[in-house]
Amino acid sequence: MDLVLSYSPPLNKKCSPLVLKDDEDVAALLASRSDSTCKIPLGVIVERTEVCAYEKSSQESTDDTDGSHDGFRDNYFDVDYCDSEPTDVGSSRQKLPIFRNVERTENDNGAINVPTTEASDSTFRDGSDLHEGKYFNTKKDLKRKLSDIAMKGNFEFRTRKSNRSLWVIECIDPNCSWRLRASKIVPESTKFVIRKYVGVHCCSLLNRNANHRQATYVVIGEQVAPQYVGVEKGPGPKGIQTFARTKLEAQISYYKAWRGRKHAHTLIRGSPEQSFHILLSYFHVLEKLNPGTVTRIEVDGESRFKYLFLAFGVAIRGFRYMRKVVGIDGTFLKGQYRGVLLVATAQDGNGQCYPLAWGIVDSENEDAWTWFLTQLKEVIGDTDELALISDRAPSIKKAISIVFEKAHHGACAWHVAQNIKNKFKCADIMRSYWSAVNAYRCEDFAGYMTEISHRYPRVAEYLENKVGFEKWSRCHYPGLRYNITTTNMVESLNSMLVNARDFPYVALLDVIQEKMSKWWNDRRIVAMAITAPLTPSRESEFRPRFAQSNGRHTLQLNPVTYHVKGGELEGVVDIFNKTCTCKEFDIDKLPCVHAIAAAHHAQVSVYSLVSPYYTKEYYVLAYGETIYPVGSQSQWDVPNEVATRVVLPREVKERKRGRPKTSRFPSVGEFRKRKNRCGKCGAYGHYKKKCNSQTGSTEGNQPTDVPV
Question: Are strands 387-390 and 325-332 parallel, antiparallel or unpaired?
Answer without folding.
Answer: parallel
